[in-house]
Amino acid sequence: MVNLLDIREAGFSYDGKQTIFDRVTFSIKPGEIFCILGPNGIGKSTLLRCLGGLLTLQTGSITLQGQGIHAIGRKELGKQIGFIPQGHQPAFPYSVKEFVLMGRAPYIPIYAMPAEEDHRIAEQAIRSIGLVHLMEKSYTEISGGERQMALFARVLAQNPQLLLLDEPTSHLDLRNQLNTLTLIETLCRQGLTAVLTTHLPDQALLLNATVAIMKDRTFMAVGPAREVITVENLKAAYGIDVQILSSADGRARACVPVKHSA
Amino acid sequence: MKVGENDINKDRRSRNKSRLRQWLLFGSMPLLAFFFSLMLGRFEIAPLMTLKILFSKILGLQADWPPVMEKVVIHVRLVRILAAMLVGAGLSVSGASFQGLFRNPLVSPYILGVSAGAGFGAALGILFSKSILIIQLWAFLCGLGSVALSYGISRLYKQPSEIVLVLAGTIVGAFFTALISFIKYIADPYEKLPAIVFWLMGSFASTSYALLLPALLPMLIPMAILLVIRWRINVLSLGDEEARSLGLDTGRLKVVVVLCATLITSSAVAICGIIGWVGLIIPHIARMLVGPDHGKMIPVSLWIGAVYLVLIDDVARSISAAEIPIGILTALIGAPFFAYLLTRRKTGW
User: Fold this and answer.
1) Domain around B319
2) Which among B45, B60, B115, B220 counts the fewest CB atoms within 10 Å?
3) Interface test with A, best of B11, B18, B19, B238 (most A CBs within 10 A)
4) Using CA atoms in the order B327, B332, B337, B343, what is the torsion angle rounded to 10 degrees?
């Protein structure tokens, strides 16, 4: 199968002196869920932004369907790649509908207002996420979980092939975490490809994702979640003792830190 | 599913209806304000007579009224009304655009130092010249120059952001304000100083067609551009990263918005001096009426701004025998009104 995204020998530095990551190579297939794990500040979000063309690599290359990502225009990238940022503080109290409509931006000419068709697509997206009752509600007045769903509706209206998510569950309660993860799964079954960063190995297990663990400025392990998320790997990545627990029926697995006994 | 669809369609119908009502309301307000202002004044002319003079002038009919009346209606009132509406609309549109760009509802069109720069230019012009046109030109050029300076300073930083631009604007503003003070200090206290002070307070008293016409294009063209790209400002207001992920070339769009807003404000300041608070509070009123969507809010700001400033100017020119500088009135009305707005959390932020 042809890869959707190819990353070759990628390296990045903000100031040209301190390298954030270096010699990172991997590929993502269409429909795959790719999960980047690693300690705080290791550069997961930076890598994600490079994949979306929001930051530019110092070395190496990123190709989307065989085309170099920086050869693709900003507008075209907006049609191909959706981005769900971590936490989001809107400056103005746009209604959910107005907010979702902004997902149509790459399709609307600079001089034009959203057409009837764009309204229809935005409403369709809101409906399929199940937010119709909040459509005219102000984006600042709804809960964090609902806001996350509105972001997903916006991405649906944007209709990209690749979805980048920066810690999509970091501000959510257990129920909304599960909702978000199942939504990602559903979307990927329908043909979307997702790359997400997370602090929770459990989520990668739950998603049955392809996992890459970042450590020492590169990927220390890449592969299916159940093979890569091991006690040894997590220990090496986070520098602490970790245990992986399974529920009796095998439906739930969790990675928990273990306190050193004094 | 079916129910949701019906709801959406019903929503859309009722939205269309209320939109029509809004357009009628916003469309008729400027017209009413226009005719009301034309009939208002210390020199007594029967209301019907003003209309007759105006339409006869437009249609090129023979005059059968005293020439002084024509002078008052056409060369005193009409030009003032047009200037006030244009400036009110322009300041409001650039204020609304800036608030979206800087993602901050407390931003005014003067945030990047236009007013201080233009004030300095005008003060220089007054000092060295008697020609109003020269003063106007200096105000316009120095207004543009101060924003260019702010923009240049903000570019010196490795990661130029909106907040750096605002800081640069504050720096440039403070610098030119000091220069204004210096010119005031050395200016002839009997002739030049009062002229500078009066100019800085803003007034339409000396407006003429000769003054208004050169400012027409530098105001109308950028206003048209901002109106055309107004929906994009919504996306821009999500912040740089999100706007780029939605396919926007934010760097270029920001330059366009800053350039347009600066041309408008510099021209406005050149026409009538520094009139504060209009570009700050009118967008808020528009937001209260139609919500934060710039697609609706910018056109509504335009209408309300035009009506607001022409009505305030009516007060400035008719409340007393001597003209009151309009900048004083807009601040006297604007500041308490803004305090009132802050108590109403309905606006969202």
Assistant:
1) 34-343
2) B60
3) B238
4) 130
